[in-house]
Amino acid sequence: MNFPIIAPSVLSADFANLGRDIEMINASEADWFHVDVMDGVFVPNISFGFPVIKSLQKLGKKPLDVHLMIVQPERYIKDFKAVGADILSVHYEACTHLHRTIYAIKEEGMKAGVAINPHTPVHLLKDIIKDIDLVCMMSVNPGFGGQKFIEQTYAKCYDLKAMILAAGSSCLIEIDGGVNAETAPKLLNSGADVLVAGNYVFASSDPVSTIQSLKNTGKDTTLAS
Ligand code: DX5
Ligand code: ZN
User: Fold this and answer.
1) DSSP assignment letter at 9
2) Which residue of the set 21, 31, 36, 39 is catalytic?
3) What CA–CA distance (Å, rounded) separates 90 from 71?
4) Is 50 exceeded by the pLDDT of residue 225?
5) CATH of the domain at 112
6) Ligand 1 — pocket residues by CB below 6 A?
7) Is the pTM above the cut of 0.90?
8) CA atoms of 58 and 158, how far apart (whole Å)
9) How far apart are CA 122 and CA 138, in angstroms?
10) What is the pLDDT of residues 151-163, one digit of tens each?
11) Domain limits at 136?
């Protein structure tokens, strides 16, 4: 895997031209599609559901990284597998039986992730860190694209990386919210592996180049020839 992994967030795409935006991501250096599912209960917003994700799977040529911002996500694990999810992340705050839910996701053949809200300390993941493939660390309050990055995320990311290394886990750290040219290099220095970017990519006049610049964050491109 060529790090950092870049996952444009489809939430910021133009839904009247979704096919065009999916093709843009296909043609770019992006690694995954980040797919935000919101239920209007866990978060104060409703995004999209199965028919849209199925369309994404049909056209998209990259893995679907599905971030569930819903209550009782365990009820829909098989449904997300059926519409093409490759990675399925559930919120720590939404799961009473997180370990059971993680294994139910893995049994369906998907990678399992845990998302944490900005106020949730990383040490709460200590006893699950070896069982999961990804931590989706929220660097904004979940629910909306285009919000301001929460600075405390750098320290959390650093602590989580130390926990992962100490446990000998291969879990990846994904940062979700407010990723841009300013925050991306600092996040990578703090141990991030995956950068989600919504507004920064889709509000840009040249999304393909913006994705490329994120992909090249921290690399000395002047030496490449
Ligand atoms: C927020 C979502 C994010 C969002 C990121 O609840 O989980 O994935 O799309 O958007 P930006 O990059 O615009 O902050
Ligand atoms: Zn997300």
Assistant:
1) B
2) 36
3) 9
4) no
5) 3.20.20.70
6) 9, 11-12, 34, 36, 67, 140, 142-147, 176-179, 196-200
7) yes
8) 37
9) 11
10) 999 999 999 999 9
11) 5-224
